[in-house]
User: Fold this.
Amino acid sequence: MQELDRTAPASGNWRVELIGVPAGADVHLRLRLESVMEGVLVSGDIDVPVTGSCARCLDPIEDTLSLDVQELYAYEGSTTEATSEEDEVRRIEGDHLDLEPLARDTVVLALPLAPVCTEDCAGLCVDCGQRLDDLPADHKHEIVDARWAGLAAKFGSDASTSSPGAPGESPTTEEN
Assistant:
């Protein structure tokens, strides 16, 4: 058994749409390499910084992911190699283990597709584009129905915000 504690730079393109690992960021690997019958079992954890944007309010996000890994690298000619498809198992290449694909796959698969800055982020106001968490609770916009704008201006009432129908009336629909 061999313990491995290393920091290496992340190569580019470890990301999904809104969040990812900055190119060249330090990826910290704490791994244990164990020889088993079929190959080398790599287990441990990876710490990696991630940056991106909140899917709801588009504010910047910075965080650190701590992920557990466990992967078998098969010896050439082993039963695992013979009974598995080429892309199902990682292989030992000569005397080397390529840990970069393991780290990249682990990190990218753990990235959220819709990251949020906080779990209760309300997002943006659909009318003005301001962040809802920064606006007062009674924030609203007056929506003027162009068909009633003339009457609303003449009488100064809220008739402009009503739906189709007479000013101030709520439309009723009947379903059969």
